[in-house]
Design goal:
The structure is a single chain. By secondary structure, the chain is mainly beta. It folds into two domains: 6-163; 165-200, no CATH class. It contains three helices and ten strands; from the N terminus they run αββββββαββββα. The radius of gyration is 21 Å and the shape is globular.
């Protein structure tokens, strides 16, 4: 059973009306600088800032994020997918797909609850899903034709359990911590290279 912050839980218990918006936060590598940068989208009407985990985040709205599949919670380690659709014309969506290397980029999805009368935020947005971008196809329309939408598929955290061991114990990952340590130099081809103990 999902647990909610006290204020959110009390509001649910009151059975009062609310308006819910989804907030999607993606952290991906910038193709130009190589640095990890983050960008946010939400289903609201305009750009907005939210404070999450002590950090002020900017989420882009105004039609950049068009639709999202319903979020369904299940128990177990099965990898589930969730699909969101972006407006291909939005420059922020273009930045996510073309400016960043979004493959396997971590994603956080929060839900923000608003009072439908005053449009005031009821409580700090609560986390509803974590995962990774699994598919983000780039489609360029032929000359003279109108571009469509960008559909991104997000897999749940169970995807991390399907990664090969080399992603966790590769030579590159070890050298990030200790550049002179060549212990895993042949990790990816260990079954095909005969190396005597004590040699590098």
């Amino acid at each position: 059973m999902r647990s909610y912050p006290p204020i959110t839980a009390a509001y649910f218990a009151s059975r009062a009306a609310f308006r819910a918006h989804l907030l999607v936060w993606v952290s991906a590598r910038n193709r130009t600088s190589g640095l990890t940068e983050s960008i946010g989208f939400w289903t609201g009407a305009d750009h907005a800032e939210f404070v999450l985990e002590g950090e002020t985040r900017t989420y882009y709205g105004a039609g950049a994020m068009l639709t999202a599949d319903p979020i369904r919670s299940q128990t177990g380690l099965k990898v589930r997918t969730w699909r969101i659709v972006f407006n291909q014309v939005a420059p922020e969506a273009q930045q996510l797909i073309r400016g960043y290397d979004a493959r396997h980029a971590p994603v956080e999805v929060h839900r923000a609850l608003f009072d439908p009368e005053g449009e005031q935020l009821i409580d700090t947005p609560h986390l509803v899903r974590r995962g990774f971008i699994d598919k983000a196809p780039i489609t360029t329309p032929p000359k003279g034709e109108t571009g469509g939408q960008i559909a991104i598929e997000i897999s749940t955290q169970g995807r991390a359990l399907t990664r090969p061991v080399s992603r966790y114990r590769s030579d590159a990952s070890l050298r990030e911590r200790a550049p002179a340590d060549a212990f895993r130099k042949y990790a990816s081809i260990a079954d095909s290279v005969d190396t005597k103990w004590g040699t590098s």
